[in-house]
Amino acid sequence: MMKIDNNSAAIANNNANEILLNNIAEYRDAITGQALLDALQHYLKTTQSLSRVSKLQFAEQSNLSTRSVSRQLKKLNTSYQRQLTIERKRRCHIILKATNITGARLSSFLGFASPSNFYLWFQKNHAVAFSEFVLNQERALRDNQRPVSKK
Known about the structure:
Order of helices and strands: HHHHHHHH
Shape: elongated
Number of domains: 1
CATH superfamily: Homeodomain-like
CATH architecture: Orthogonal Bundle
Helix content: over 70%
Low-confidence stretches: none
Strand content: under 5%
């Protein structure tokens, strides 16, 4: 039977730790940069309710800290909040084209804490108040449905 001294055991333990740290570093490198951004975009698109998403939750699913997520996204000139805004805009446009939903219901669906936060966000991101946008959409719909007169 082979006898292992304390020095050999310490070296083996250090080698095992080094291999483990290298594997963790390789894994983290694999989910950084564009891959991390793609994962975030997929996470936001596939989450049914945006009120339930958070940077912390995404970071935990990615086995990263929120700080690491922020740093990696910053390298790509974006942020978690910017990606959330992009996804909210995408969903907002889809819903407004397909339905006649109220601002209060839409704000809840898009994950806003209150309708007033949604209305401010909408005006900032669309350069028009939500109520004005809805009126313009209704006018456009009426104009498109008018029968064409034959002259």
